[in-house]
Amino acid sequence: MRGTTLYDKLVDSHTVRSLSEDGRQLLLYVDRTVLNEYTSPQAFTGLRQAARPVWRPQAALGTVDHVNPTASRRTTAMPDPGAARQTEYFAENCAHFGIELFDVMHKLQGIEHVVMPELGLVLPGTVIAAGDSHTTTYGAFGALGFGIGTSDIEHYLATQTLIYKRLKPMRVSVDGDLAAGVTAKDLVMALIRMIGADGATGYALEFAGSTIAQLSIEGRMTICNMAVECGARGALIAPDETVLEYLASRPRAPKGGLWSRAVDSWQSLRSDPDAVFGREVAMAAALIEPMVTWGTSPDQAAPINDLVPDPGQESDQGRRRDMERALSYMGLTPGTRLTDITIQRAFIGSCTNARIEDLRSAAAVARGRRVAAGVRAMVVPGSSSVRRQAEAEGLDRVFLDAGFEWRQPGCSMCLAMNDDVLHPGERCASSTNRNFEGRQGAAGRTHLMSPAMVAAAAINGHLTDPRSRAGV
Amino acid sequence: MEQFGIVEGIAAPMPAANVDTDVIMPKQFLKGIDRSGLGDGTFHGLRFGPNGEERAEFVLNRPEWRTASFLVVGPNFGCGSSREHAVWGLRQLGIRALLGTSFAGIFFDNCARNGLLALTLDHDAVRSLTDLASDPATAKLTVDLPRQSITAVNGKRFAFDIEPARKEALELGLDGVATTLRFRDDILAFERDYLEQSPWLM
Ligand code: SF4
Description:
The structure holds two protein chains of two kinds.
Chain A: H1 6-13, E1 15-18, E2 25-29, E3 33-35, H2 41-50, E4 60-63, H3 81-97, E5 100-102, H4 112-119, E6 127-130, E7 144-147, H5 150-159, E8 161-165, E9 168-175, H6 184-195, E10 203-208, H7 210-214, H8 217-226, E11 235-236, H9 241-248, H10 256-266, E12 279-284, E13 291-293, E14 301-303, H11 317-330, E15 345-348, H12 356-366, E16 376-379, H13 384-392, H14 395-402, E17 405-406, E18 427-430, E19 445-448, H15 451-460
Parallel strand pairs in A: 3-4, 4-5, 6-7, 9-10, 9-12, 10-11, 15-16, 15-18, 16-17, 18-19
Antiparallel strand pairs in A: 1-2, 2-8, 13-14
Helix pairs in contact in A: 2-5, 6-8, 12-14, 12-15
Chain B: E1 6-14, H1 21-24, H2 44-47, E2 70-73, H3 85-92, E3 97-100, H4 105-112, E4 117-120, H5 123-134, E5 140-144, E6 149-152, E7 157-159, H6 164-172, H7 176-181, H8 184-197
Parallel strand pairs in B: 1-2, 2-3, 3-4
Antiparallel strand pairs in B: 1-5, 5-6, 6-7
The complex binds iron/sulfur cluster (SF4).
Iron/sulfur cluster (SF4) is lined by residues 65-66, 111-113, 132, 134, 350-351, 411, 414-415, 433 of chain A.
């Protein structure tokens, strides 16, 4: 018999029963969820209408993150009436169903995918489904995380399971050393560019290879987070020493005898050597350069020293039309040097890149320098804990002295559901994950890149190669 | 959930790739706590200009396709955010089925939970359907879920595949939670064993 992939091991260990003859459709037991205020209300209403309880309230955590303001002084006030209604209903539901809630005043509040790992709530070998597509982040721990819609949140809350269709396993092997100034963000952006925005649709990714093994947990989270931008509904990295070290000190991770038992059981969480993947992709780390997007889909990206591409060179008619549309939305002319693109806004934040390491890398660029005239630059830490840690290290001073705003945690301008938005036509260097039309504000223009590159762009007023003298 | 049987209606072509859920349902329509009022939000930036005026060039604003029941879509339709509001909005706009080569995973599941039939067809079929939908004279289609076929007015037929479980749920308009709770004892038994073996997850 052939070996089993890590993905299939996780699905097998969580299968309650098969729901189809070929076994691909199954009832999947889910260990845990995290809820936010904007994708959960209708799920709770559904439970209330059917008078159903939550199956395992202790396996859910609520955190307000998507709609709250991030102004530097925290208050309970939600200036937007819709946001106020959502946060009130969220609090009411969490209280009613016995679910722990981090509201905006809570000292652990933050973006769901930043809060869960830092508490030690993401453990190897678990399945975590949540009402947000970037739940794939948890693959950094060898946990199968994936996003679900509101109906499935209701299904999970009522049954602790989901109706699940098994994906095909795909392996991305990355070997060698990343060059100085090249980060995990660049790696995953290069992958998305290579395989396309639907390159992993229908697949669960496994990242492997020496480059991945050398990455910190935070870098791994960045990669697994953005795997959904190439269509993957699950992205895994086999847990290793780095994971154990990260988890050992986390407040909600198992302790003592339970910890040892857990660690023992995690040893088998790797793909067998003879496991076969539905698709294999290989990347050489040394060839990866700092990346930036020029279009309105995450795969419309290029190395920073390239030019804005010319749709005229594209032979596929559909792709050419999409490129033309993207360039017209972005207000860019083919042949322009990417480093000549000037910006008005800079945003460091989101569950992709607002952890402590990300803030350190951006602060290293900003230290002792000033944001360019005419640029408004914001730093929004991923969580209250990250914010406190950064302040303990003096990073807030570095940012403030350089002219960045130092704000309170939340999703903020990653999706601009609060008052942090781009004005029409404004161009933003952003450490987030989506450059969709209107994502950061109607008619706003987003360029995705690593947090250090955002800092460099803020300081120079234009997109910048972080390896150049102007960059560091 | 509304049942899906045989539905006849107009198909509108929407061939762009990677139409994401931010475009299908922009953030300003996500502020509710129920499912209401989302029809107005659907494709808002494509349908309306900055001052609320209709964009004449957008396909669903054209008189021939205003009442479309089907969209023939480009690859990776529904990518991006998990927001189910995108599917609720499409349904409220009167869309019953989406015909395309590929759909993003979360969006695809959200469709199944709301009686919106998302059909994955091969490239040639989608190209033909796009051509048919682009001409008002041939844009009328019949989507027959029980027989798993799409028929155009010119008699052209396209067969499609669908997993039996999803087909049954759509045909009967099943409530997913109630269906799963039939397996309550299986879940309880599984959970007992599972938590016994991994007590650190208690
Ligand atoms: S930071 Fe952005 S991607 Fe992450 S959970 Fe918030 S809105 Fe979603």
